[in-house]
Design brief:
There is one protein chain. The protein contains four helices and nine strands, in the order αβββββαβββααβ. The chain has 158 residues and is of the alpha+beta class. It has one domain (6-151): Alpha-Beta Complex (Nucleoside Triphosphate Pyrophosphohydrolase), CATH 3.90.79. The strands form two sheets. A five-stranded mixed β-sheet has the order 5-1-7-6-9, with helices on both faces. The longest helix has 13 residues, at 55-67. The radius of gyration is 16 Å and the shape is globular.
Length: 158
């Protein structure tokens, strides 16, 4: 069973579906510093898909909750599968790029989010050891290389 962690071997397995925003402004990317079980980590505005919402709705909500920035998705950068080294969780991440549509300065951020900050690519590369996962830099690198799919590739049916 090479490549499978404990979660897969238990007989009941499903990935954690997450969304992330790759938001660039003036050659800087919006990221969050968040408190995790491994200490303070850097991540894109990201979170779990909730029941009843589309992937696009989820990334708009998560970005607002974690950064107080309104986000308008314009493209899908990629779909990423990552199993934590501990083998306990596999994430299926849908990363979106888009534009900022305003900031709500007095909005409280989600619990565990210390702050939202804009970092350059060089700053992000320099702090890789603090990233929440390897997906953080991979999403940025893919965005920089021009990877984009139209949102029309996503289908949400009732």
């Amino acid at each position: 069973m090479q490549g499978f962690g404990r979660e897969e071997m238990s007989g009941i397995w499903k990935p954690n579906v997450t969304v992330a925003a790759v938001l660039e402004r003036d050659q800087r990317f919006l990221v969050v510093e968040e408190e995790t079980e491994d200490g303070v980590r850097i991540n894109q505005p990201a979170g779990h898909l909730e029941a009843g919402e589309s992937l696009v709705e989820a990334v708009v909500r998560e970005t607002l909750e974690e950064t107080a920035y309104r986000f308008v998705p314009q493209a899908l950068v990629g779909i990423y599968q990552w199993a934590r080294p501990q083998g306990d969780v596999t994430y299926l991440r849908f990363a979106f790029s888009g534009v900022e549509a305003g900031h709500i300065a007095d909005r409280a951020l989600d619990q565990g989010i210390l702050r939202a900050v804009w970092l350059s690519v060089d700053e992000l590369r320099a702090c890789r050891g603090q990233h929440r996962s390897p997906l953080v830099m991979q999403c940025v690198e893919d965005w920089l290389s021009g990877r984009r799919c139209g949102l029309d590739v996503l289908r949400c049916t009732d």
